[in-house]
Amino acid sequence: MKNYPPEFKADAVALYQSRPGATIRQIAADLGVNPETLRNWIRAAGASRPRGHGADTPTGPVAPLEAENAALRKKVRELEEEREILRKAAKYFAGETRW
Fold first, then answer.
1. How far apart are alpha carbons 82 and 23 in whole angstroms?
2. pLDDT in tens, 77-93
3. Residue 24 in contact with residue 16, Cβ under 8 Å?
């Protein structure tokens, strides 16, 4: 049995949390540890991955939907800014035509 320093264990758990698409088996292979050992470290740390990232739903992965939602929110903000500019311009020109 190998003894790993606590820093290595903490880094391994942090790596697991930061790579939502990777499996425990893949991360363990990258680190050169047994997958069950890594699984035990994760359980001992009480670690979990952020919800929604890389998780699959019955209709497919969530990540592309989140990316699309973010892009749509950005577009809505841009359109709202443009509308506000046009509203101010119309108000300005309407006031200028009155004598």
1. 44
2. 999 999 999 999 998 88
3. yes
User: Both tokens of residue 87?
Assistant: 């509203």
DSSP string, 26-47: HHHHHHTS-HHHHHHHHHHHT-
User: Tokens for 44?
Assistant: 């001992």
pTM of the model: 0.49
In angstroms, how far apart are the furthest CA atoms of the chain? 91
80 half-sphere exposure, CB direction, 13 A CA radius: 6
pLDDT tens per residue, range 7-36: 999 999 988 888 888 899 999 999 999 999
* DSSP state letter for 46: T
Residue 70 in tokens: 């973010």
What residues contact 54, with CB distance under 8 A and at least 6 apart? 20, 21, 61, 62, 63
